[in-house]
Each structure stands twice: as structure tokens, then as C-alpha cells.
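Example S7 (C-alpha cells).
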């Protein structure tokens, strides 16, 4: 048996156990709308303003205007669209979405400036003067759209939507509309809050 003097243990420094440094918690920002375009041009004009997808907000498109939307930071189109902070799949928002009778979509901001803009799923198209929308219905259908509203005062222009009514399909297909011969303008309908002048 080996004996060590007790003084040796009292003088020696206590044994230290290595532990890795505390790391900051990394939280990746969730993006519920990553399948939507990050940027959308406001028109086919080469110097058109851009809309950029804004994370941290979402819109609920209600089927009935005037819907009460508790927690909304902004309502557009007579209450048919409400903008909420957060992500739609966060637990605190789940109850509100479960009781809504509408669809959820992304929020964009107009660049530069940052005003909220909500896509509606409608897309405006204008053909060259003398080219009527009625003569281009097949090309419009081949691009994945249908005429939602003809304009009697402008037979070369119309509002379009996808047959399914999908907001995602409407935004993704804009380039197909732009490639139709004789198209002069294609613009997604984006609702924005009124700003006093």
C-alpha cells in the first residue's frame, strides 16, 4: 500500500473538468413562402420598380370582405385581406388560421421605400394596339392563365388569373405571359395601403 501525505492534496489545485464554451443559440429564420419568387417586377418596363418578398409577415385572403381580423396590423380591400406579423405556422397563429375561411399568402415590399404590397393572384396584360385579347385566348391558356375580366374600354387588355386560382402559379407564370407575341405589359396586381399626400 502506498501512502501520500495529505499536504500534497491540500496544496494541489483542484482538478478542472474541461467543458466547451457556451455557444449562442442559432435560430434560423423560418420562411413559409420560400417557393414564391423572392422578387417581382412591377411591370415589363426595363426600369420598373421591384417588389421583394418580406419575411416575418403574412397575408390572409378572406373569402368575405369585412372579416374581423384580430391581431392584424393592416387590412386591405375593405377587410378582404389582412396582414399579420410572424409566420403562419407559428403556434400562436395556428388558432387564428384554423378558424379563417381564406388562403394564406406572402407579403412583398415595394423597393425602394418598403411599403407593404399584397399580391392578389390577378395579373394585368396589355397587348399592342390593334391586338385584341379575344384573339389571344389560346396563347393565354397555353401560358397557364384565363381571362378573369375583359375591359370594354380597352379590348387589347384584360385581367387574368390561373384556372386553379393559385397565387403561387399566378406569380411564377408571369414570364410565360411576357413571352407571348405582341405583349406590351404584364403586371401583377399588388394591393398597397393608401398613403396620404
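Recovered sequence:
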Amino acid at each position: 500500500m502506498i501512502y501520500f501525505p495529505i499536504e500534497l492534496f491540500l496544496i494541489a489545485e483542484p482538478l478542472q473538468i474541461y467543458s466547451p464554451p457556451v455557444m449562442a443559440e442559432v435560430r434560423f429564420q423560418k420562411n413559409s413562402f420560400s417557393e414564391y419568387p423572392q422578387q417581382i417586377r412591377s411591370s415589363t418596363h426595363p426600369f420598373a420598380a421591384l417588389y421583394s418578398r418580406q419575411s416575418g409577415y403574412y397575408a390572409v385572403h378572406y373569402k368575405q370582405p369585412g372579416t374581423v381580423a384580430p391581431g392584424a396590423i393592416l387590412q386591405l380591400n375593405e377587410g378582404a385581406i389582412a396582414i399579420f406579423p410572424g409566420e403562419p405556422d407559428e403556434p400562436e397563429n395556428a388558432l387564428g388560421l384554423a378558424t379563417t375561411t381564406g388562403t394564406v399568402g406572402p407579403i412583398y415590399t415595394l423597393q425602394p421605400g418598403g411599403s407593404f404590397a399584397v399580391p392578389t393572384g390577378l395579373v394585368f396584360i396589355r397587348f399592342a394596339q390593334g391586338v385584341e385579347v379575344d384573339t389571344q385566348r389560346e396563347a393565354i391558356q397555353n401560358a397557364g392563365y384565363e381571362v378573369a375580366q375583359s375591359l370594354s374600354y380597352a379590348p387589347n387588355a384584360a385581367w387574368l388569373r390561373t384556372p386553379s386560382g393559385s397565387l403561387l402559379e399566378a406569380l411564377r407564370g408571369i414570364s410565360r405571359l411576357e413571352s407571348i407575341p405582341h405583349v406590351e405589359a404584364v403586371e401583377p396586381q399588388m394591393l398597397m395601403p393608401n398613403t396620404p399626400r
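Notes on this example. Residues 39-191 form one domain.
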